[in-house]
Design a protein that fits this description.
Distance between the termini: 67 Å
Number of domains: 2
Oligomer: single chain
Shape: rod-shaped
Strand order of the largest sheet: 2-1-5-4-3
Strand content: 15-25%
Length: about 220
């Protein structure tokens, strides 16, 4: 928890932040040898970060199969543990294939996000029964919460950046439209409303955005 509390969320990419948290999980979750973070984009899962090739290989096998503990944990919001791939009866095709990758046990914990689930933290081991029900699960849940916070932070930052960019575009569009109106008012002796109607008619006639028409008018005036 001390290491997790020191993870910096601001001014970093989500990939970088999740990478650091995943490495901390590999060190801190009892029994962990390899760890990954699966996120769901729509209904499509992908590995956003991993520590160790075992976790990445196990995740990708599940994506190929279309099911498995990390995917089911992420979609269903439930904790799923495999104690031994030699005796596990669920996900038969995946278990047979992941056993060849050296995985004997795993723990998948859903990532909580505003009442929904956005993915899962996945912990793998080459030993059977590597994950103690209480200790490993408690630590993994703490890590899952930290990952969810990082995702929320990154999502909010992206949304704010998009809003700021859209506002800037809107302000620039308004400014050039006002300039074009001024040009038309001077050239044709019309008022502002009439100048705007001229712009709108041209936009519809040529099937171009109003801003593009305005830019063309202003540019032609400057060229002249």
């Amino acid at each position: 928890m001390r290491d997790l509390s020191r993870v910096v969320l601001a001014d970093r990419s989500l990939e970088e932040t999740l990478g650091e948290i995943t490495v901390i999980a590999a060190r801190g979750v009892p029994g962990a040898e390899s760890v990954s973070t699966t996120l769901l984009r729509g209904d499509k899962p992908f590995t956003a970060a991993h520590s160790g090739e075992m976790a990445l290989a196990a995740d990708e096998l599940q994506y190929e199969e279309g099911y498995g503990p990390c995917m089911d944990a992420g979609r269903g919001g439930v904790v799923l543990r495999i104690d031994d791939t030699h005796t596990e009866q669920r996900w038969p095709s995946y278990v047979a294939r992941v056993r060849e990758q050296g995985v004997r046990s795993s723990l998948s914990v859903p990532l909580p996000y505003q009442g929904t689930v956005i993915g899962a933290l996945n912990v793998y081991s080459s030993r059977p029964e590597a994950f103690l029900p209480d200790e490993s699960l408690r630590t993994a849940r703490e890590v899952a919460e930290a990952i969810a916070v990082a995702v929320v932070n990154a999502t909010a930052h992206h949304r704010l950046s998009e809003q700021s960019r859209n506002l800037q575009i809107a302000m620039e569009s308004r400014a050039v439209i006002e300039q074009a109106k001024g040009v038309l008012m001077a050239q044709r002796g019309v008022d502002g409303d009439a100048a705007f109607e001229i712009l709108r008619d041209a936009s519809q006639r040529y099937n171009r955005k109003l801003r593009e028409i305005a830019v063309g008018i202003v540019a032609s005036t400057r060229a002249g």
